[in-house]
Write a structure and sequence with these properties.
17% strand, Ribosomal Protein S8, Chain: A, domain 1, alpha+beta, five-stranded mixed beta sheet
């Protein structure tokens, strides 16, 4: 029971300010840009892999993953996922106008069959 006499539900969240709490789902549009700032570091690898799958299914050939600049932990996590993901053809650090070293641009293999490459990027095996 809350201090104002109302019964508290365990799944309730405070909608007055629109804030979400830990464990609340985050709705992400499948538009080719994934901003990881809304996610806990422990969830990043799964979020990136799932987002890439959704973009592939939606026919989006290029994805920008915004991981932030920081000390590079998120970037390394993202790159590890990209190296293992079967639909990733190549990836590169974003150009300055795309977010610079705070973002990574990923080329996906359309339909999982064609080869491609991000100009100036790294293929999924880490080779230039």
């Amino acid at each position: 029971m809350t201090t104002d006499g109302h019964e508290e539900r365990p799944d309730a969240r405070d909608d007055r300010d629109g804030a979400t709490g830990p464990g609340d789902p985050v709705e992400v549009p499948i538009d080719g840009t994934l901003d990881l700032h809304a996610f806990a570091p422990r969830d990043v690898a799964d979020v990136v892999a799932t987002y890439l799958d959704e973009c592939l299914a939606a026919g989006i050939p290029e994805v920008r993953v915004i991981h932030g600049k920081g000390v590079g932990v998120q970037r390394r996590t993202v790159e590890a996922v990209l190296r293992r993901h079967p639909a990733v053809v190549a990836f590169r650090t974003a150009a300055a106008w795309e977010g610079g070293w705070g973002a990574t641009v990923v080329a996906l293999r359309p339909g999982g069959t064609e080869e491609g490459r991000c100009p100036g990027g790294t293929d999924a095996d880490g080779d230039r």
